[in-house]
Amino acid sequence: MQIPFSLLFSVLINFFNGIFQFNYTTLWQNLLLLLVAIIVTSIGAAMTVNMKLVPNPADGLAQAVGDLLNKGLGFGKNTIDLFSVATTCGIGLLFTGNVVAIGLGTLIAMIGVGRCIALFNFVFKKKMDEVSGLVNYEVEVEVAQTN
Hints:
By secondary structure, the chain is mainly α.
């Protein structure tokens, strides 16, 4: 399922890139666009994982880390992003002597995506589970596994 979803999302990304041509030059415009991107990305990741759809590998890993630490998806995402940024900083320092490819936007996204996922799940996860019927399904699976 990963391949068809990846192809579909690639087509959608190319479509919207053709429609929206962003050429912002001021910091506040770029930060506003980043904020919108963080919110939309967070909602998409949370909904994909919550609805038991095929998550992209990074979101699946964040879910696994969050479950392993007995925390939510948002905390798992923050953990993975912090590890990724720290690794990038370490590699940059090792090979160039400088931190490369890490800017203000990266740091804001590193914190923001996980926190937005946690906020979205805090507000909407219970209702999403009820509407989708996943609450009853998970209870039935747990009962079947114990019997």
